[in-house]
Amino acid sequence: MKLNATYTMPYRRRREGKTNYAKRLAMVKSGTPRLCIRKTNTQIIAQLIAFEPAGDKIIAQATSNQLKAFGWKEDKNLPSAYLTGYLIAAKGKKAGVEKAILDIGFSTPVHGSRMFAALKGAVEFGLDVKHDAKALPNKERASGKHIEDYAKTLGDEDYKKKFSKYTEKGINVKELTKLFEQVKEKISKEGEK
Known about the structure:
The chain is globular and about 75 Å long. Helices cover 45% and strands 14% of the residues. It has helices at residues 12-15, 21-30, 78-94, 114-125, 139-143, 145-153, 156-162, 164-168, 176-192; strands spanning 34-39, 44-50, 57-63, 99-103, 128-129. A 5-stranded mixed beta sheet has the order 3-2-1-4-5. The termini are far apart. It has a domain at 18-138 and 186-192: Nucleotidyltransferase, domain 5 (2-Layer Sandwich).
């Protein structure tokens, strides 16, 4: 009896849920660097990656942990994602990258999410990335104004409970947007050097 084997085993990285080869091929064919944005439980990671036959080359990389050097002490909220995108665009500008394609991997594209906050930061710094403006969070959310406004409505006891991790790091949440603008300005100056 002859068996008709029609099943083809997917590549290992596809089986592990790490690479969508159809999307990757389309991005590689464009010849434009990819703006890869990933989130972990502890930070936001953004990279500008160019394809080379020998393997992908990372042109620039920024993580939300690197924002501590600019005075930002929080790692994974929406303003952190925005500032990480802003920082990667600044580093990309230094490396001569002006245009990129967004690559969020297997993350579900949720409008206003951290992925799109990072994209907003990169675009506002000047990186040319094709996108739908409806997907980006509004200015107030990207700067953390919604967090600041909520903190202002709380009494002292509730504030200490809800924002204990912020206060441990020395962050006054009631002035979060002021800190946000200061960090953004420092990143801008870094990008101009």
